[in-house]
Amino acid sequence: MKTSPPSQPVHPVGEASRLPSPPLPGETYGGRIHVEWDPQAAVTPLGQLPFFIEFLKTADLVAPWVRDCPLTYHSPNAPQSIDVLGTLFLSILSGHHRYAHITTIRTDGVNPALLGMRKVCSEDSVRRALGTLDEAASTQWLQTHLLRCYEPLLMEPWILDVDVTVKPLYGHQEGAEVGYNPHKPGRPSQT
């Protein structure tokens, strides 16, 4: 008589209990940090920001950007350039598109310090600072630093693969937007 091997369950009973992962070290403008996750905590949209800031520091992108900024103050009470630019930077990364939204990041006690900021500026300070910038000088400043980000990529061979299909959508379908639609101009489509 043959004996059959012990049967293995086809599907596991449940997921294995997850052991806490060790803290991940990172270098930021505020110094060395250790990032930990709490699996029970709520998700935050800026949870990965310490790693992005570490990338910026490693690539030396923020310090020259701030140093070369044509923003100048003459008052000893004026905010530092890193505080103004860092406030704008954090606001944009948070998805804000109005100055009034800057107020929501003023309570963030972690991320500004990771950028080396002393404080988060008010929306009025940021608006006034950007209003004083000379258009030609600030355009040159931004173009120089943008080129610094992508110029090394131009030395590498690459292939541009673009899908230019326009799919007309009829009725009220999710993702339909009025945009470029050569077949039915002015109708919603999905590109």
How would you characterize the overall build of this protein?
The chain has 191 residues and is an alpha+beta fold. The protein has a domain at 24-34 and 44-53 and 61-67 and 79-150. The protein has 6 helices and 5 strands. The protein has a 3-stranded antiparallel beta sheet with strand order 3-5-4, with no helix packed on it. A two-stranded antiparallel sheet has the order 1-2. A hairpin with a 2-residue loop joins strand 1 (24-28) and strand 2. It starts with 23 loop residues before the first strand and ends with a strand. The mean pLDDT is 84.
Distance between the termini: 66 Å
Silhouette? extended
The largest sheet has its strands arranged as 3-5-4
Assign a percent range to the helix content.
25-40%
Low-confidence spans: pLDDT under 50, at least 5 residues?
none
Strand content: 5-15%
Q: What is the structural class?
A: alpha+beta
Q: Given the structure, what is the number of helices? A: 6
Q: Report the radius of gyration as a whole number of Å.
A: 25 Å
Q: Give, in order, the helices and strands.
A: EEHHHHHHEEE
Compute the average pLDDT.
84
What is the topology?
Elements: E1 24-28, E2 31-35, H1 49-58, H2 62-67, H3 81-93, H4 111-114, H5 123-132, H6 135-150, E3 167-168, E4 177-178, E5 188-190
Antiparallel strand pairs: 1-2, 3-5, 4-5
Structure summarized in a few sentences:
This protein has 191 residues and is an alpha+beta fold.
Keywords:
single chain, 191 residues, alpha+beta, two-stranded antiparallel ribbon, 6 helices, 9% strand
